[in-house]
Amino acid sequence: MGDEPADLSTARSTRLGVVVLVVVLHVAALLGLIRAFAPDFTAQVTRTVLSTFSVTVVTPPPAPQPSKEPEPAGAAAEAGKKAVAREVKADKPKVDIAKTPAPKAASTGSANSSGAKDAGAGTGAGGQGSGTGSGTGGTGTGGGLTRKVEKIAGEINSAKDYPRDTRDLRKDDYVIIAITVSAEGKPTACRIHRPSKDAQANAITCTLALQRFRFKPATDAQGNPVASTYGWRQRWYD
Fold it and tell me: Does some domain include residue 217?
């Protein structure tokens, strides 16, 4: 009698089915007891189990509507007529326009003056003279004098009254001084009108003139003595 392998798969599956059936029966019996004696506990367990599952319901979007076809563009209208400005008639002016031409401007000429009685090339009118004053003519510097100032005393020695060491500097030269003479005939001031090359000699001339010169004063139109200016030129020849 030989040894043959036995088929154990059928006996194993049978035992497994019996075990599962026994477990299911025990669980069912246990649930029945719990439901019978503790109904609140069963409901709470059921809610807890169901709360772990969440189901999200998504509503599908609506189907897109078909787009309308664009309306065909209309044709361009005819060109409008060219605008023309309306004619406006100007009103007649209230003031009559002169028909005669306006008179010409004042006549022109080559005269040196306009509207004066006497014409000339000078700068003024009145008396004539070569001096700087006005009124009575004369060669002096005053105005309106009937008698000019006159030197009556006092001299300056061109050789002795000046230093010898500057003689060559002032040789053939001269200085002009302007002396103010009072109504009493006394010199009161002196200024250099035209200086020489020797400044020291210029100052000496003014000093000596104030010290030595005496004058007959000038008089006005009424014969009253008045102050005036006297010019003196000092020359050096050696």
Answer: yes
Q: Check residue 202 and give its pLDDT.
A: 94
Q: What size, in residues, is the chain?
A: 238
For 170, phi and psi rounded to 5 degrees? Answer: -105, 5
User: Residue 209: which domain range?
Assistant: 150-235
Which amino acid belongs to residue 137?
Answer: G
172 within domain boundaries: yes
For 22-33, what is each residue's pLDDT tens digit? 877 877 777 777
Phi–psi pair at 223, nearest 5 degrees: 85, 10
CA-wise closest residue to 178 among 163, 164, 188, 165: 188
**46-105 confidence digits (pLDDT tens):** 666 556 555 565 667 777 777 777 666 666 767 767 777 777 676 666 656 556 665 555
Helix (H) or strand (E) holding 39: helix 39-51
pLDDT, averaged across the chain: 73
Residues 6+ apart with CB under 8 A from 235: 158, 173, 174
The DSSP call for residue 159 is T
> Rounded to an integer, what distance in angstroms lies between the CA atom of residue 177 and that of residue 122?
30
Q: Which pTM was predicted? A: 0.41
CATH number at residue 185: 3.30.2420
Does 91 fall in a domain?
Answer: no
Structural domain tally of the chain? Answer: 1
Examine residue 206 and state whether it is found in any structural domain, yes or no.
yes
